[in-house]
Amino acid sequence: MLGRLRHPLSAVGATTALTLPWVYVWATGSAHSLGDLQTVAVSGIAVLGASFMLAWAAETAEEDVPRAFALAVLAVLAVAPEYAVDALYAWTAGANAGTPAGREAANLAVANMTGANRILIGLGWSAIALFTVYRAGSSADPAVRKESGFLASHVELDRDIATEITFLLAATAYAFFVPLGNGIGITDTIVLVGLYVTYIAIIIRGEVEETEEQVGVPAYFQSFPKWPRIATVLLLFGYSGFMIYTAVHPFAEGLEHLGTSLGIPPFFMIQWIAPLASESPELIVVAYLVNKARSTAGFNALISSKLNQWTLLIGTLAVVYSIAVGAIGTLPFDEKQTAEIWITAAQSFFAIGILTNFEISVREAVTLLFLFVSQIVIEFYFIQTIPEPRATELSILVLYAYTVVYLVLGAALFAKRRDELRWLFGKTATNARQAINGQSGQPEHAD
């Protein structure tokens, strides 16, 4: 809608106007005087406007940096509020280490982190795939291939995301071992953050691809001379990142309060509603890209977001906890959170299995969505109808059961697509060698 306004600067002005009410509220410190519904409305509209700016910045940046790097920056900024929320719980856990309050905060940090990661795949990947196929009926999206058969139509992904998928698989494999260390420690930080740094070092050395022909705001900004264009990108990234960082937390808190008033348990709100709010900028950006028939870039952004959350977010928890404690420490968690980490890793394992052939079908998207939603519904039913501690015991059994389902489905996909998996590893190794040798050319794509 905004992109159809007469002049590109009109769209920029409209999105800026969406953020101004929140700017006023934030600058005057008057957020506390708003009701929960007002806070959700004002901050939510600001997040919407900032998300458009973030998407424009990433699309414009593709003129000067590798697309994967531009999308990685977009992903980090879009989920920055999730880092802030989790860091707050980790800090509280460290500042109250050894106390019941500290243990509860540590569990909340893990619950919020696992909730955010599962939302990104279970809701984000699946819903965007379904939306992409739906939009293909009224847009010429070359990534969508219509097939006969039950839910057989699928979205084809860019094979240049082989590096992202490989590093995500490596992080997922390591995540299964995290609970064995009785918490999230500095070793986990070193391994997972090291994986992400290595990934960035590879993609930033890639060549700047010939950009897709843009329209609207990105096309207008790409017409600028190089340095004004770079300054514009930095300004858009900076302003949108600031808006998202300051507005999403009040947005999430407002939703939590509204949910609690409706009888939804606070722990459930922190694991699911708060992360859903903090993931909203990312989902808005991807929906915007899909709506422009740029589903490939949209999925690249989603996969990049999952990678940075599955590495940097986990690593951040141990660092913040240690700073709060005043010494190198390990963020502890209980048996319930152990099961949460394992089901999150298993879901990621299954989702990566789906992407190994660089496609996601409607059938696969529906499966992801069904498994995600059904597990939450079953757990919510137990929490609402069965007293503790029996409700927690049953919840843990459900988590382990779904973990097994995800692992079985994932293993079957990897076995069936072992040739694609070998190609995936080979492509990543080629990209890494070229980055080390300083070569800018891209390796040939396999058919």
- Terminal CA distance reads 37 Å
Placed side by side, the strands forming the largest sheet appear as 1-2-3
CATH H-level superfamily = NCX, central ion-binding region
- How many structurally independent domains? 1
The amount of helix comes to over 70%
The CATH topology annotation reads as A middle domain of Talin 1
CATH level 1 name: Mainly Alpha
User: Which parts are unreliable, with pLDDT below 50 for 5 consecutive residues or more?
Assistant: 1-5, 440-447
Rg of Cα set: 22 Å
The number of helical runs is 15
What overall geometry do the principal axes of the alpha carbons give?
globular
Largest sheet: 3 strands, antiparallel
Key terms:
2% strand, 3-stranded antiparallel sheet, 447 residues, globular, disordered N terminus, mainly alpha, A middle domain of Talin 1
What can you see in these coordinates?
With 447 residues, this protein is mainly α. The protein has one domain (2-437): Up-down Bundle (A middle domain of Talin 1). 75% of the residues lie in helices and 2% in strands. A hairpin with an 8-residue loop joins strand 1 and strand 2. The longest helix has 36 residues, at 100-135.
Short description:
48% of the residues are buried.
Topology readout:
Elements: H1 8-28, H2 36-61, H3 67-78, H4 80-95, H5 100-135, E1 144-145, E2 154-156, H6 162-175, H7 186-203, H8 216-222, H9 226-261, H10 266-291, H11 295-325, H12 335-355, E3 359-361, H13 362-385, H14 390-416, H15 418-437
Antiparallel strand pairs: 1-2, 2-3
Helix pairs in contact: 1-2, 1-8, 2-3, 2-8, 2-9, 2-10, 3-11, 4-5, 4-9, 4-11, 5-10, 5-11, 5-12, 5-13, 6-7, 6-11, 6-12, 6-15, 7-11, 9-10, 10-11, 12-14, 13-14
